Amino acid sequence: MARDYDGTDYPEAESSQDFAAVPDAFQRLWTPHRIVYIEQGGIGGEDTCPFCVAPTLDDEKALIVARGEHAYVLLNLFPYNSGHLLVCPYRHVSTYDLATEEETREIADLTQTAMRVTRQVSTAQGFNIGMNQGRIAGAGVAEHLHQHVVPRWATDSNFFPIIAGTKAVPRLLGEVRTELAAAWPTR
After folding, report:
1. Contacts of 141 (CB under 8 A, 6+ apart)
2. What is the pLDDT of residues 55-65, one digit of tens each?
């Protein structure tokens, strides 16, 4: 247990140091534990690709929800919304046009399954799906292809990102990963 500035006890946040991630511009406010911000940082040094490291780790630790033959699905450690998933090929390839037919087919299939499972688990009302190709296009990890699957709800926006540069994330990543992985259909 940790103690807040006003003396209130709350569970300590799990360090993100060993998770696969690359920081983005937002801070995260984990509302279940009041004001606990996600630590910035990734696995290993700057030259380490988090999407190459993640599949070598335990699914729970890497936040992997599902694994396919050519691609896998994991939670974004720095989510835009609760349940923000990334679909990545195992192979280290930077852009969609360099992916094989098998990789693009499985990325598409996993994306559709991610939408179905997320809708079932969290009653998402819509999705933002996209890929940022290259650093100039906004890719946080430009060297490794990944597709974002971001669930949306009518009430998921507030003033925090604009005023405070902070995203309010109402669920802990481990809880979301457990629910999504349990609901994922087996092959």
Report:
1. 22, 49, 50, 51
2. 999 999 999 99
